Amino acid sequence: MGFSLVDYxxxxxxxxxxxxxGTRFRRSHHSVKDYFVGxxxxxxxxxxxxxxxxxxxxxxxxGVPAIAYGTFAHPEQGGALTYLQVVFGYIxxxxxxxxxxxxxxxxxxxxxxxxxxxxxFGSRAKHFAASLFLxxxxxxxxxxxxAASLVLGAVLAASFPGMPHLWLWSILxxxxxxxxxxxxxxxxxxxxxxxxxxxIYLGGSLLAAWELLHMIPGGWTTFVARAQAAHKLQMFSFxxxxxxxxxxxxxxxxxxxxxxxxxxxxxxMVQRLLTCRNQGDSRKALIASGFIVFAQFALFLVIGVxxxxxxxxxxxxxxxxxxxxxxxxxxxxLPHGVAGLVIAAIFAAxxxxxxxxxxxLSSTTILDFYQPMTGGLVTEPKLLRLSRWCTALWGxxxxxxxxxxxxxxxxxxxxxxxxxxxxxxxxxAFLLGVGTTRxxxxxxxxxxxxxxxxxxxVRIYTPLAWTWYVLVGTVICTGVGYAASVxxxxxxxxxxxxxxxx
Length: 502
What we know:
CATH superfamily: Sodium/glucose cotransporter
């Protein structure tokens, strides 16, 4: 059907409205604490929905349907509902985080995740982990911004065929508008725009699924029959093949460790937990978000299977990559007005994730690096001003990375692989911090370094599925870090012993 003037109007109203709404939170900021964690008076329900919106990027909205739509040699690689096995691990991890990490974060007035390492080990361990976060989050978020550009690129291509550099204009549009309201509104703008964007992208996805079901001849009955015949409704696989990413074991165990790292050590998510009133609200917000995430992943996977069945009748369009399948359907097949709303929904997910990343990158840069360097002598107004400009600088960096990400392959796999390589060492460091008393700062730094080096080798030289990366990295970091700490302590004791006898 193509993208009409009505669709462009719907999209423009959304983009302008969400940007203006986010900037209105500027007047609530009187300090850096207000800018990065807010007044801690927001309902846990709102924060729970913000957590869901933050972890639901455009990678999810276009990448997950593409996984279910695609054809693979094994269902454990995709092409069915097997990704839901990973989401089971997401829920288990949230319970573990609530028991282990949240109590530690609420002991003292912490403003970043890495302040916990500073309190337990010292500044060098904090800076090492925070540096890894900055690099990982910037790279992963750049991929997400590029994923959003695929959507707008599909929209513009339908109306302006032959127009050069569509993806570049798309990146600039998403990046600049999100930067404006994050720069002005801080964490309060991020949380409340997250809520609006969650409603929009879930509503838009449900509307797309409804329209898609009615476009399949025979509706639900045909959908189930064709999907079952193609083995598209398979959810479980109990294979122990470690090269396959979507098995029950990789999902439950690997997904648990992945989420323990992403939600327990990543400032992007920990920042949400720190905005809660107390430990109880933080736990409720986190655990509730897990069940909402499961429901929405199920929805996105079913949309992918629906697209597979629909194109058996309609004939699949020519695509460069399967990541384009959902955006192409929206632009070419949905009614006018509906297409604009669903595209706005995908933009909502992109902007929600990007705004959270910008704020978390800025908070770590200012609170974990800049403020300690100045000895706390910078005034609050100046620090708040610097925080905003740091947000702007990170916005430019992420836009630059998004431009480079066009050659990195599948956006969904690329984004998760980047994060998984770093998450293991980071999770290992935090577990050593909250779970042991013998681990030392030097031992933790050695553990992180060795684990990171090993994970790069694993990625390059082994066929191990990415869902196992965090577990492997965590085991290496905790094992090496603890052993190095004990070894150093024993050497110190042995060298001190003769002197004690004399």
